[in-house]
Structure formats: structure tokens, C-alpha cells
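Give me the fold.
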Amino acid sequence: MAETTTVINTAYHECQTDLRIKHPTQLADDLGPDGACAIITDTDTGRVVATVSANPYTLYAKDREWTGFNDGGYQSGSHFMLFAVAVVADPRYRKMGLVGRCITELEKWLSQRKEVVAVWVKCVEHVNGVYWRKRGFVEVYREERPPGSYGSWGPGGGVWELGTLVRVVRRLDE
């Protein structure tokens, strides 16, 4: 897990000053008994090059304002939050769809274990909001955050926006 933690912290350092994983057991603690972590390694070196984690997500009142929430019986079933999304800062591994492959594998694994309905992600809007929308996630809401909260700063060091997005894995009424 140490190598995975290093990849995560290095990737997060590109947009925030705080470490994402602050102590050796934090990733395992954050995953809990029902979470999962997908990891891709370089076949030649065995080095971790990409990772995405997911754990069960309890919906908040704001999440229930999602336009599609009441349309497909999403109140029941399991929701998962993606977190600790990272690719090594090496051009050889960028733009290869590694994060997408991790998410696909996580969704498959979670769907076999739980009645998964949707996966959620929180993102720093100006850093990777467009990335998530291109992958089928839709915005539920955005919140302005003051400079330095969560160790992040907006463009020019100012206020930044935290986006909460969701992608339906499977409709329960199908």
C-alpha cells in the first residue's frame, strides 16, 4: 500500500498542498470493509501507475436534489464514492485511459457484490470537472470553497469550487 499511497499523494500535490493520505493505514481505513481499490501496474516494472478507490456513500439531502434521483428508484441500492484517483506524473502513463479502466473494474467488482446504483465523485472543478463530465458524470451541485480548504486553491490562489457529480451504473427498474 505504501507505493499506492505515494502515487496518490504525488498526484494530489499537483492541485493541493496537503497530503491526501496522511498516515500509513489511512487508505485501508477509508476503504473500510466494503470499499475497494483498483490498481494498474506497469507490466515491465511492476510499479503502480494508476489507482482509484471507492467506498459506500451515504446520500446527503443535497444529493437527493439530483434531477434523476426519483426517476429510477435510486433511493434503494448502493451508492459508492470514488476517491484517491491518481495516475503517476509521467507522460508515458497520461492520456491512456488508466483511470477509466480502474473505474470500469471497480464498477464490475462492486456490481457483483452489491446492488450498485450509482458512483459519485467530488472534484476540484477547475482542475478536473471537465474530465469527469466527459466520462458520463453529471453535476448534482457545486459549492464554493475558500482558498486553502482541503489544501486547495482556486485559479490565481483564490476561491475554488468543489463539484459533486454522479454516474448511474444501473437503473433498478430495468
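Strands lie at 36-41, 48-56, 78-87, 116-124, 138-145, 160-168.
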